[in-house]
Specification:
- 29% of the residues lie in helices and 25% in strands.
- It has twelve helices and 24 strands.
- Strands 22-23-1-24 form a four-stranded mixed β-sheet. It has a four-stranded mixed β-sheet with strand order 2-15-17-16. Strands 4-5-3-14 form a four-stranded mixed β-sheet, with helices on one face.
- Strand 18, helix 9 and strand 19 form a beta-alpha-beta unit.
């Protein structure tokens, strides 16, 4: 689906969708508990559907209430309990890296031979930290030339697990979810500086809510007591700062935009979008669960995204529409997402008339007063598509975004919300 966006400043009030990061973790913890849990405020995105699909294969019963409208959040009832799997089974992770990396260690608890498959760029995303660990701990594992398909079989046993913390924190989360259920205590330790540690903090919080403890001795070192049990219960997922970041950016380069549904006590690393926008000179006003982004005189600066690589697309748009030169640094892991986001954002913003220089792990962006507009590609990446939609506000001509339907991976109602803020869109070939 190609979308034509007519330049227009967005303004108004929006309620952000629930956190995708927290939703994955809540669903998995509920599926590992013996008993029934209810999780409120779950987004029916493609990634979340992938996690539900695999958890059902592992024995969980998951029932979803019908949302009021397509893409709206819903409540999910999860009856947990891993079943013993005899023989081989294939599970489909779609394009969700979280589903894959979180559930590989969980699959080792089933006893079965589990083959993980996926689509899109998922087969190219790195799994080496797991592969090395499995060899060390004599866990059966085989794969082809790419990361997927991957076939593994347990058992997962207690012990010391050391892996690099500068590839993805998702490997740590996967082990933190599974190791509390084995017999014996374990130590999980990073062999490098721990990046995206805030995501591990989210995991520890969700574990705690479900009655499971993992001690953080220091960032990158975690002690996990074995023989624990997940507790069922009733939970609610908070709003997603990763998705809110696009609306913060829209308000900063557009008009007043109020974002509702966010927790000011959140552990989400992408909450950093607020101080980062302020670093560039943008105006952000916080009042309880509502945050308002206002247009301001934004200038350049240096932004470190080592702990929040998902913010690269909206930050690149902000920098392109600000004055001065902005450097987005320590951004190399953005190359390992649904697409190479450093290359994608540099390529597509330059097509719109921006001045972006791509480095190995950075973007150097010289802000422009206005962008031109034109045809761009979303690279089948939900965050690139949303960022380019925000950039259209700063263009003189319409922006045609190819593959714009990929937003359904994380934010199914994005285009509806975009229109509710005054955005003018149409499918290519049709009138707005």
């Amino acid at each position: 689906m190609n979308i034509v966006v007519t330049p227009k400043k967005l303004a108004g009030t929006i309620t952000v969708p629930p956190s995708k990061s927290i939703s994955h973790r809540e669903l998995i913890c509920a599926a590992l508990a013996d008993g029934k849990s209810i999780i409120h405020n779950i987004s029916p995105s493609e990634d979340i559907r992938a996690t539900c699909r695999v958890l059902r294969e592992f024995g969980a019963r998951i029932e979803c209430a019908e949302p009021a409208a397509d893409g709206d959040a819903l409540s999910v009832e999860v009856t947990g309990g891993l079943k013993r799997i005899v023989g081989a089974r294939t599970v489909d992770c779609g394009e969700s890296g979280s589903t894959l990396r979180f559930l590989i260690p969980v699959s080792l608890l089933t006893g079965g031979e589990i083959t993980f498959t996926g689509r899109g760029r998922l087969a190219e995303r790195p799994l080496k930290p797991y592969l090395r660990l499995f060899e060390e701990h004599r866990i059966s594992c085989r794969k082809g030339a790419a990361s997927l398909p991957l076939t593994v079989q347990g058992p997962l046993t207690a012990g010391t697990y050391e892996l690099a913390g500068n590839v993805s924190s998702q490997f740590f989360t996967g082990l933190l979810l599974a190791l509390p259920l084995v017999h014996g205590d374990s130590l999980l330790r990073s062999t490098t500086e721990m990046e995206s540690a805030s995501y591990v903090g989210i995991t520890l919080d969700v574990l705690r809510r479900h009655g499971v403890e993992a001690e953080c001795e220091r960032v990158g070192t975690y002690r996990i007591r074995g023989g624990q049990h997940y507790m069922p219960g009733e939970y609610r997922v908070e709003g997603d700062y990763s998705q809110a970041a696009f609306w913060f950016a829209a308000g900063a380069v557009g008009s007043n935009l109020k974002i509702q549904g966010l927790s000011q006590d959140s552990r989400q690393g992408d909450k950093a979008i607020i101080p980062l926008i302020r670093t560039l000179g943008g105006q952000i006003e916080v009042s309880g669960a509502a945050v308002t982004a206002l247009p301001g005189r934004m200038g350049g600066g240096t932004i470190d995204v080592a702990d929040c690589p998902d913010l690269v697309p909206p930050l690149a748009v902000l920098a392109a529409c600000s004055r001065g030169v902005t450097q987005i640094v320590r951004a190399g892991r953005a190359r390992l997402k649904e697409c190479d986001r450093l290359h994608a954002m540099a390529t597509e913003l330059n097509r719109l008339g921006a001045m972006v220089e791509e480095k190995e792990d950075a973007l150097i962006i010289e802000g422009q007063k206005r962008l031109q507009g034109g045809r761009v590609s979303a690279w089948k990446d939900h965050r690139v598509a949303m960022a380019l939609a925000v950039a259209a506000q700063c263009c003189d001509e319409p922006v045609i975004i190819e593959d714009a339907g990929c937003v359904c991976k994380s934010y199914p109602r994005f285009w509806r919300d975009f229109q509710s803020l005054g955005g003018i869109i149409a499918k290519e070939g049709r009138k707005a």
